User: What shape does this take?
Amino acid sequence: MRYRSNVTPSTTEAAVDMRNLVKRGQGYYARLIIPQDRWQDAGKVMGCRSGIRREVVRTLGTRDHREAIRRREKMLETMRAELDAKLVQAGLLPLHGEWCPTEAWCPSSPDEQAVVGGRAGLPAGPASCLRGVYSKRQSISVS
Assistant: This one.
């Protein structure tokens, strides 16, 4: 059978499609990769026998590749939220929620929040909640 070039994805497109996706048998699974410096924390809160957890894998409940791609992001968000909740409950920092650039980047006034949020009245997001976490640890001068 001959494949048409406009139908078959290139190798780079296929690699992007499979990012955070695993195919086992005929089903697709979402794969959340845990940063190496947090393997022990994740293993502790998830009750692993070895005490180390490198990844979290959950089924997407589909055999269709395109449907798996559509479901992937929502499942990854759910897995991140569950792991972060367990980490916070154990008194540890969440995986991705601690970073804030500096005071210069974090909006403080309602006008700045409206610019960052895109519309007036919207919160600026996680940066406004986490203002100063890293600015206390490192001083970056902004001219």
